[in-house]
Design goal:
The protein has 14 helices and 14 strands. It is of the alpha/beta class and 429 residues long. It has helices at 29-43, 90-104, 116-129, 141-147, 155-167, 176-186, 210-217, 237-244, 264-276, 294-300, 315-322, 353-365, 367-381, 386-406; strands at 8-12, 47-53, 61-65, 68-73, 110-114, 133-136, 170-173, 193-195, 224-228, 253-257, 283-287, 303-306, 327-330, 345-348. Helix 7 crosses helix 10 and helix 11 (315-322) packs across helix 13.
Protein backbone atom coordinates (compact mmCIF):
# COMPACT_ATOMS: atom_id res chain seq x y z
CA UNK A 1 0.00 0.00 0.00
CA UNK A 2 1.31 3.51 -0.77
CA UNK A 3 2.26 5.79 2.07
CA UNK A 4 -0.50 8.07 3.33
CA UNK A 5 1.68 11.06 2.44
CA UNK A 6 3.72 12.01 -0.59
CA UNK A 7 7.43 12.54 -0.04
CA UNK A 8 9.82 14.13 -2.50
CA UNK A 9 13.08 12.23 -2.99
CA UNK A 10 16.24 13.55 -4.66
CA UNK A 11 18.13 10.70 -6.34
CA UNK A 12 21.72 11.65 -7.22
CA UNK A 13 23.37 9.88 -10.15
CA UNK A 14 25.94 12.44 -11.21
CA UNK A 15 28.16 10.41 -13.54
CA UNK A 16 25.57 8.41 -15.46
CA UNK A 17 22.00 8.95 -16.58
CA UNK A 18 19.19 6.38 -16.55
CA UNK A 19 18.42 7.71 -20.03
CA UNK A 20 21.75 6.38 -21.34
CA UNK A 21 22.05 3.42 -23.68
CA UNK A 22 22.73 0.27 -21.66
CA UNK A 23 25.97 -1.60 -22.20
CA UNK A 24 27.94 1.56 -22.86
CA UNK A 25 31.11 2.85 -21.20
CA UNK A 26 29.28 4.24 -18.15
CA UNK A 27 25.91 2.51 -18.35
CA UNK A 28 25.13 -0.78 -16.71
CA UNK A 29 23.48 -2.29 -13.67
CA UNK A 30 23.39 0.97 -11.73
CA UNK A 31 21.33 2.60 -14.47
CA UNK A 32 18.88 -0.29 -14.39
CA UNK A 33 18.72 -0.11 -10.59
CA UNK A 34 17.85 3.59 -10.59
CA UNK A 35 15.26 3.27 -13.37
CA UNK A 36 13.50 0.30 -11.82
CA UNK A 37 13.52 1.44 -8.18
CA UNK A 38 12.32 4.96 -8.97
CA UNK A 39 9.48 3.51 -11.04
CA UNK A 40 8.42 1.33 -8.14
CA UNK A 41 8.87 4.11 -5.57
CA UNK A 42 6.53 6.30 -7.64
CA UNK A 43 3.97 3.51 -7.50
CA UNK A 44 4.31 3.60 -3.70
CA UNK A 45 3.43 7.29 -3.65
CA UNK A 46 6.81 9.03 -3.74
CA UNK A 47 7.79 11.82 -6.13
CA UNK A 48 11.34 11.37 -7.41
CA UNK A 49 13.77 13.69 -9.17
CA UNK A 50 16.86 11.96 -10.58
CA UNK A 51 19.76 14.42 -10.89
CA UNK A 52 22.48 13.66 -13.43
CA UNK A 53 25.13 15.59 -15.32
CA UNK A 54 24.13 17.28 -18.58
CA UNK A 55 26.14 15.75 -21.44
CA UNK A 56 24.35 17.76 -24.10
CA UNK A 57 22.06 14.97 -25.30
CA UNK A 58 18.94 15.64 -23.23
CA UNK A 59 16.74 18.61 -22.26
CA UNK A 60 16.98 19.86 -18.69
CA UNK A 61 13.91 17.92 -17.55
CA UNK A 62 12.66 14.61 -18.93
CA UNK A 63 9.54 13.14 -17.33
CA UNK A 64 9.88 9.36 -17.29
CA UNK A 65 6.42 8.81 -15.85
CA UNK A 66 4.06 10.34 -13.35
CA UNK A 67 6.14 11.20 -10.31
CA UNK A 68 9.59 10.57 -11.84
CA UNK A 69 11.75 13.16 -13.60
CA UNK A 70 15.34 13.11 -14.85
CA UNK A 71 17.02 16.49 -14.36
CA UNK A 72 20.24 17.14 -16.32
CA UNK A 73 22.49 19.72 -14.66
CA UNK A 74 25.29 21.80 -16.14
CA UNK A 75 28.67 20.73 -14.72
CA UNK A 76 31.81 21.22 -16.77
CA UNK A 77 32.01 21.12 -20.56
CA UNK A 78 29.04 19.85 -22.57
CA UNK A 79 29.51 16.50 -24.18
CA UNK A 80 30.71 13.16 -22.82
CA UNK A 81 33.24 13.08 -20.01
CA UNK A 82 35.28 10.15 -18.82
CA UNK A 83 34.06 9.00 -15.43
CA UNK A 84 37.50 9.49 -13.91
CA UNK A 85 37.62 13.09 -15.10
CA UNK A 86 34.24 14.06 -13.70
CA UNK A 87 35.29 14.44 -10.07
CA UNK A 88 36.61 18.00 -10.54
CA UNK A 89 33.16 19.13 -11.70
CA UNK A 90 31.21 17.89 -8.70
CA UNK A 91 31.21 21.34 -7.01
CA UNK A 92 29.69 22.79 -10.20
CA UNK A 93 27.16 19.95 -10.23
CA UNK A 94 26.22 20.73 -6.62
CA UNK A 95 25.87 24.43 -7.44
CA UNK A 96 23.55 23.67 -10.39
CA UNK A 97 21.46 21.33 -8.26
CA UNK A 98 20.99 23.94 -5.55
CA UNK A 99 20.03 26.55 -8.15
CA UNK A 100 17.48 24.18 -9.69
CA UNK A 101 15.90 23.51 -6.32
CA UNK A 102 15.64 27.21 -5.59
CA UNK A 103 14.01 27.91 -8.97
CA UNK A 104 11.57 25.05 -8.51
CA UNK A 105 10.93 25.87 -4.83
CA UNK A 106 10.92 22.16 -4.07
CA UNK A 107 11.45 20.66 -0.62
CA UNK A 108 13.20 17.31 -0.71
CA UNK A 109 12.49 14.99 2.20
CA UNK A 110 15.36 12.58 1.52
CA UNK A 111 18.50 12.25 -0.62
CA UNK A 112 19.47 8.88 -2.11
CA UNK A 113 22.89 8.96 -3.78
CA UNK A 114 24.47 6.36 -6.07
CA UNK A 115 28.24 5.87 -6.49
CA UNK A 116 30.98 7.67 -4.59
CA UNK A 117 30.90 11.01 -6.44
CA UNK A 118 27.17 11.28 -5.94
CA UNK A 119 27.68 10.31 -2.31
CA UNK A 120 29.94 13.35 -1.89
CA UNK A 121 27.15 15.53 -3.34
CA UNK A 122 24.59 13.80 -1.13
CA UNK A 123 26.65 14.55 1.98
CA UNK A 124 26.52 18.27 1.28
CA UNK A 125 22.79 18.18 0.57
CA UNK A 126 22.28 16.30 3.84
CA UNK A 127 23.67 19.31 5.66
CA UNK A 128 22.20 22.02 3.45
CA UNK A 129 18.67 20.61 3.37
CA UNK A 130 18.60 18.90 6.77
CA UNK A 131 17.38 15.77 5.04
CA UNK A 132 18.35 12.14 5.64
CA UNK A 133 21.02 10.86 3.26
CA UNK A 134 20.86 7.27 2.00
CA UNK A 135 23.75 6.13 -0.16
CA UNK A 136 24.59 3.11 -2.28
CA UNK A 137 28.09 2.69 -3.71
CA UNK A 138 27.52 -0.11 -6.26
CA UNK A 139 31.32 -0.53 -6.37
CA UNK A 140 33.92 0.30 -3.73
CA UNK A 141 37.38 1.61 -4.55
CA UNK A 142 39.15 -0.49 -1.89
CA UNK A 143 37.44 -3.65 -3.15
CA UNK A 144 38.39 -2.92 -6.78
CA UNK A 145 42.00 -2.31 -5.82
CA UNK A 146 42.13 -5.66 -4.03
CA UNK A 147 40.32 -7.54 -6.81
CA UNK A 148 42.93 -6.79 -9.50
CA UNK A 149 46.58 -5.87 -9.07
CA UNK A 150 46.39 -3.39 -11.96
CA UNK A 151 43.38 -1.54 -10.54
CA UNK A 152 44.47 1.78 -9.06
CA UNK A 153 41.51 3.74 -7.78
CA UNK A 154 42.73 7.21 -6.76
CA UNK A 155 43.25 8.11 -3.09
CA UNK A 156 40.69 10.92 -3.31
CA UNK A 157 38.03 8.34 -4.17
CA UNK A 158 38.88 6.20 -1.16
CA UNK A 159 38.87 9.26 1.11
CA UNK A 160 35.53 10.46 -0.28
CA UNK A 161 34.03 7.00 0.26
CA UNK A 162 35.24 6.98 3.86
CA UNK A 163 33.62 10.36 4.52
CA UNK A 164 30.34 9.26 2.99
CA UNK A 165 30.38 6.02 5.01
CA UNK A 166 31.02 7.98 8.21
CA UNK A 167 28.26 10.54 7.72
CA UNK A 168 25.42 8.97 5.72
CA UNK A 169 22.27 8.19 7.67
CA UNK A 170 22.02 4.80 5.95
CA UNK A 171 24.10 2.77 3.50
CA UNK A 172 22.40 0.26 1.22
CA UNK A 173 24.48 -2.85 0.54
CA UNK A 174 23.25 -5.29 -2.07
CA UNK A 175 24.66 -8.35 -0.30
CA UNK A 176 26.14 -9.50 3.00
CA UNK A 177 29.48 -9.67 1.20
CA UNK A 178 29.29 -5.93 0.48
CA UNK A 179 28.15 -5.24 4.05
CA UNK A 180 31.21 -7.03 5.41
CA UNK A 181 33.49 -5.05 3.06
CA UNK A 182 31.95 -1.78 4.23
CA UNK A 183 32.46 -2.71 7.86
CA UNK A 184 35.97 -4.16 7.57
CA UNK A 185 37.51 -1.83 4.96
CA UNK A 186 35.67 1.41 5.76
CA UNK A 187 34.66 1.07 9.39
CA UNK A 188 30.94 1.36 8.62
CA UNK A 189 28.58 1.32 11.59
CA UNK A 190 26.65 -1.99 11.26
CA UNK A 191 23.52 -0.23 12.53
CA UNK A 192 23.56 2.04 9.50
CA UNK A 193 24.04 -0.65 6.83
CA UNK A 194 20.87 -2.11 5.32
CA UNK A 195 21.24 -5.19 3.13
CA UNK A 196 18.71 -4.87 0.30
CA UNK A 197 19.28 -6.96 -2.84
CA UNK A 198 18.95 -5.75 -6.37
CA UNK A 199 16.17 -7.07 -8.56
CA UNK A 200 15.01 -8.15 -11.99
CA UNK A 201 12.10 -7.05 -14.16
CA UNK A 202 10.20 -10.28 -14.75
CA UNK A 203 7.89 -8.57 -17.23
CA UNK A 204 10.91 -8.09 -19.53
CA UNK A 205 13.19 -10.96 -18.56
CA UNK A 206 11.36 -14.21 -19.09
CA UNK A 207 12.03 -17.30 -21.22
CA UNK A 208 11.60 -17.07 -24.97
CA UNK A 209 11.46 -20.19 -27.11
CA UNK A 210 15.09 -20.96 -28.02
CA UNK A 211 14.40 -21.53 -31.71
CA UNK A 212 12.33 -18.36 -31.99
CA UNK A 213 14.98 -16.33 -30.17
CA UNK A 214 17.72 -17.54 -32.49
CA UNK A 215 15.61 -16.89 -35.56
CA UNK A 216 14.93 -13.34 -34.38
CA UNK A 217 18.66 -12.75 -33.86
CA UNK A 218 19.72 -14.40 -37.12
CA UNK A 219 21.64 -17.14 -35.30
CA UNK A 220 21.94 -20.77 -36.35
CA UNK A 221 21.62 -23.86 -34.14
CA UNK A 222 25.24 -24.17 -33.03
CA UNK A 223 26.00 -24.33 -29.28
CA UNK A 224 26.10 -20.78 -27.93
CA UNK A 225 28.03 -19.19 -25.06
CA UNK A 226 26.96 -15.69 -24.02
CA UNK A 227 28.66 -12.72 -22.34
CA UNK A 228 26.65 -9.61 -21.45
CA UNK A 229 28.17 -6.50 -19.90
CA UNK A 230 30.39 -3.49 -20.33
CA UNK A 231 33.59 -4.19 -22.25
CA UNK A 232 36.26 -3.54 -19.64
CA UNK A 233 38.98 -5.69 -18.07
CA UNK A 234 37.19 -5.88 -14.70
CA UNK A 235 34.40 -7.90 -16.36
CA UNK A 236 36.86 -10.56 -17.56
CA UNK A 237 35.92 -11.07 -21.25
CA UNK A 238 39.58 -11.89 -21.98
CA UNK A 239 39.41 -14.85 -19.61
CA UNK A 240 36.20 -16.04 -21.28
CA UNK A 241 37.82 -15.95 -24.72
CA UNK A 242 40.68 -18.07 -23.38
CA UNK A 243 38.19 -20.51 -21.84
CA UNK A 244 36.14 -20.62 -25.05
CA UNK A 245 39.25 -21.62 -27.00
CA UNK A 246 39.64 -24.63 -24.68
CA UNK A 247 36.11 -26.04 -25.17
CA UNK A 248 35.65 -29.54 -26.59
CA UNK A 249 33.07 -28.21 -29.06
CA UNK A 250 34.75 -26.87 -32.19
CA UNK A 251 31.58 -25.40 -33.67
CA UNK A 252 30.26 -23.44 -30.66
CA UNK A 253 29.94 -19.67 -30.94
CA UNK A 254 30.67 -17.00 -28.35
CA UNK A 255 28.39 -13.94 -28.51
CA UNK A 256 29.64 -10.86 -26.62
CA UNK A 257 26.91 -8.28 -25.97
CA UNK A 258 27.90 -4.83 -24.71
CA UNK A 259 30.38 -2.05 -25.29
CA UNK A 260 29.87 1.25 -27.09
CA UNK A 261 32.28 3.21 -29.29
CA UNK A 262 34.38 4.16 -26.26
CA UNK A 263 35.26 0.48 -25.88
CA UNK A 264 36.55 0.15 -29.47
CA UNK A 265 40.18 -0.09 -28.37
CA UNK A 266 39.52 -2.91 -25.92
CA UNK A 267 37.25 -4.63 -28.45
CA UNK A 268 40.10 -4.69 -30.99
CA UNK A 269 42.35 -6.16 -28.31
CA UNK A 270 39.80 -8.91 -27.62
CA UNK A 271 39.44 -9.64 -31.35
CA UNK A 272 43.21 -10.08 -31.61
CA UNK A 273 43.15 -12.37 -28.61
CA UNK A 274 40.41 -14.53 -30.15
CA UNK A 275 42.26 -14.71 -33.48
CA UNK A 276 45.51 -15.69 -31.77
CA UNK A 277 43.63 -18.47 -29.95
CA UNK A 278 42.22 -19.75 -33.24
CA UNK A 279 38.57 -18.91 -32.50
CA UNK A 280 38.29 -15.45 -34.06
CA UNK A 281 35.68 -16.53 -36.61
CA UNK A 282 33.45 -17.98 -33.89
CA UNK A 283 33.40 -14.91 -31.62
CA UNK A 284 30.72 -12.32 -32.38
CA UNK A 285 30.70 -8.79 -30.91
CA UNK A 286 27.20 -7.36 -30.80
CA UNK A 287 27.75 -4.02 -29.03
CA UNK A 288 25.40 -2.16 -26.69
CA UNK A 289 21.88 -3.56 -26.96
CA UNK A 290 18.48 -2.23 -25.80
CA UNK A 291 17.21 -3.93 -22.66
CA UNK A 292 14.09 -5.26 -24.33
CA UNK A 293 16.23 -7.29 -26.78
CA UNK A 294 18.44 -8.86 -24.14
CA UNK A 295 15.93 -11.64 -23.34
CA UNK A 296 16.38 -12.87 -26.91
CA UNK A 297 20.12 -13.29 -26.37
CA UNK A 298 19.70 -14.89 -22.94
CA UNK A 299 17.06 -17.32 -24.26
CA UNK A 300 19.10 -18.17 -27.36
CA UNK A 301 22.17 -19.06 -25.29
CA UNK A 302 22.99 -22.44 -23.80
CA UNK A 303 25.00 -20.82 -21.02
CA UNK A 304 25.74 -17.27 -19.83
CA UNK A 305 29.23 -16.73 -18.45
CA UNK A 306 30.14 -13.98 -15.93
CA UNK A 307 33.96 -14.08 -15.47
CA UNK A 308 34.19 -10.82 -13.51
CA UNK A 309 37.01 -10.01 -11.12
CA UNK A 310 34.40 -8.47 -8.83
CA UNK A 311 30.66 -7.75 -8.74
CA UNK A 312 28.90 -5.97 -5.88
CA UNK A 313 25.75 -7.83 -6.91
CA UNK A 314 25.57 -8.69 -10.60
CA UNK A 315 22.34 -8.08 -12.51
CA UNK A 316 23.40 -10.06 -15.59
CA UNK A 317 23.26 -13.47 -13.85
CA UNK A 318 19.81 -12.65 -12.47
CA UNK A 319 18.52 -11.54 -15.88
CA UNK A 320 19.92 -14.70 -17.47
CA UNK A 321 18.34 -16.92 -14.82
CA UNK A 322 14.99 -15.17 -15.23
CA UNK A 323 15.18 -16.23 -18.91
CA UNK A 324 15.99 -19.79 -17.89
CA UNK A 325 19.67 -19.71 -18.84
CA UNK A 326 22.21 -21.43 -16.55
CA UNK A 327 25.11 -19.23 -15.40
CA UNK A 328 28.80 -20.00 -14.93
CA UNK A 329 30.48 -17.23 -12.92
CA UNK A 330 33.49 -16.38 -10.82
CA UNK A 331 32.97 -17.02 -7.11
CA UNK A 332 33.36 -13.37 -6.11
CA UNK A 333 31.36 -10.65 -4.37
CA UNK A 334 27.64 -10.58 -4.85
CA UNK A 335 27.58 -13.36 -7.43
CA UNK A 336 27.38 -15.82 -4.55
CA UNK A 337 24.09 -14.25 -3.45
CA UNK A 338 22.11 -15.56 -6.43
CA UNK A 339 24.08 -18.45 -7.95
CA UNK A 340 23.87 -21.78 -6.15
CA UNK A 341 26.63 -24.24 -7.07
CA UNK A 342 25.21 -27.15 -9.08
CA UNK A 343 21.63 -25.95 -8.51
CA UNK A 344 21.03 -23.05 -10.91
CA UNK A 345 24.58 -22.62 -12.22
CA UNK A 346 28.23 -22.97 -11.27
CA UNK A 347 30.72 -20.82 -9.37
CA UNK A 348 34.40 -21.00 -10.27
CA UNK A 349 36.63 -20.40 -7.20
CA UNK A 350 39.74 -19.36 -9.15
CA UNK A 351 40.37 -17.49 -12.38
CA UNK A 352 41.39 -20.36 -14.63
CA UNK A 353 40.27 -20.70 -18.28
CA UNK A 354 40.46 -24.48 -17.89
CA UNK A 355 38.16 -24.37 -14.85
CA UNK A 356 35.60 -22.31 -16.75
CA UNK A 357 35.81 -24.59 -19.79
CA UNK A 358 35.29 -27.64 -17.57
CA UNK A 359 31.93 -26.26 -16.42
CA UNK A 360 30.81 -24.83 -19.77
CA UNK A 361 31.44 -28.00 -21.79
CA UNK A 362 28.84 -30.21 -20.00
CA UNK A 363 26.20 -27.49 -20.29
CA UNK A 364 26.70 -27.33 -24.05
CA UNK A 365 26.54 -31.10 -24.40
CA UNK A 366 23.86 -32.21 -21.92
CA UNK A 367 20.30 -31.06 -22.60
CA UNK A 368 18.93 -32.65 -19.43
CA UNK A 369 21.52 -30.87 -17.26
CA UNK A 370 20.66 -27.54 -18.87
CA UNK A 371 16.95 -28.11 -18.31
CA UNK A 372 17.44 -28.98 -14.63
CA UNK A 373 19.54 -25.88 -13.96
CA UNK A 374 17.18 -23.78 -16.06
CA UNK A 375 14.14 -24.70 -13.97
CA UNK A 376 15.99 -23.85 -10.75
CA UNK A 377 17.27 -20.57 -12.25
CA UNK A 378 13.75 -19.39 -13.08
CA UNK A 379 12.61 -20.20 -9.55
CA UNK A 380 15.55 -18.21 -8.11
CA UNK A 381 14.73 -15.12 -10.17
CA UNK A 382 11.14 -15.11 -8.90
CA UNK A 383 12.42 -14.04 -5.47
CA UNK A 384 14.03 -10.84 -6.77
CA UNK A 385 11.23 -8.68 -8.14
CA UNK A 386 11.89 -4.92 -8.21
CA UNK A 387 8.63 -4.26 -6.40
CA UNK A 388 10.00 -6.15 -3.38
CA UNK A 389 13.25 -4.15 -3.52
CA UNK A 390 11.32 -0.86 -3.57
CA UNK A 391 9.20 -1.90 -0.61
CA UNK A 392 12.37 -2.50 1.41
CA UNK A 393 13.70 0.93 0.41
CA UNK A 394 10.35 2.46 1.34
CA UNK A 395 10.60 0.85 4.78
CA UNK A 396 14.16 2.14 5.22
CA UNK A 397 13.13 5.69 4.29
CA UNK A 398 10.20 5.56 6.71
CA UNK A 399 12.48 4.38 9.53
CA UNK A 400 14.85 7.30 8.93
CA UNK A 401 11.99 9.81 8.94
CA UNK A 402 10.58 8.27 12.12
CA UNK A 403 13.98 8.33 13.81
CA UNK A 404 14.42 11.99 13.04
CA UNK A 405 10.93 12.82 14.18
CA UNK A 406 11.27 10.91 17.46
CA UNK A 407 14.66 12.47 18.13
CA UNK A 408 13.17 15.92 17.71
CA UNK A 409 14.85 16.28 14.34
CA UNK A 410 18.38 15.52 15.54
CA UNK A 411 20.46 14.07 12.70
CA UNK A 412 21.12 10.34 12.58
CA UNK A 413 24.51 10.94 10.96
CA UNK A 414 26.78 13.97 11.15
CA UNK A 415 25.16 16.85 13.11
CA UNK A 416 23.62 19.33 10.70
CA UNK A 417 22.21 22.82 11.03
CA UNK A 418 18.63 24.03 10.85
CA UNK A 419 17.03 20.64 11.45
CA UNK A 420 13.79 22.33 12.49
CA UNK A 421 13.20 23.10 8.82
CA UNK A 422 12.68 19.43 8.02
CA UNK A 423 9.12 18.55 7.09
CA UNK A 424 8.80 15.92 9.78
CA UNK A 425 9.28 18.59 12.44
CA UNK A 426 5.93 19.87 11.32
CA UNK A 427 3.23 17.89 9.62
CA UNK A 428 3.76 15.03 7.22
CA UNK A 429 2.48 15.70 3.82
Amino acid sequence: MPNSFTSHIAVISAHTSPLGRLGGHKTGGMNVYISETTHELARLGHAVDIFTRDDGTQPEIVRLESGVRVVSLAAGPRGPLDKDGMWEYMPAFLHSLRAFRERQRTRYDLVHSHYWMSGWVGGYLQRLWSAPHVTMFHTLGEVKNRARSDEHEPPHRIEAERRVVANADAIVAATDHERIALERLYGADPERVAVIPQGVNLDIFRPVDRTEARRALGLDNRPMVLFVGRLEPLKGPDLLIDAFARLDSDDAILVIVGGDEQADGYRRELRRRASAAGVGRRVQFVGATPQDRLPLYYSAADVCVVPSYHESFGLVPLEAMACGTPVVATRVGGLTATIREGENGYLIPFRSPDAFAARIDPLLADTRLRRRLSDAAIATAERFRWSAVARQLDTLYAELWETRAVAGCHAVGEPVAALAEHALCHNRR
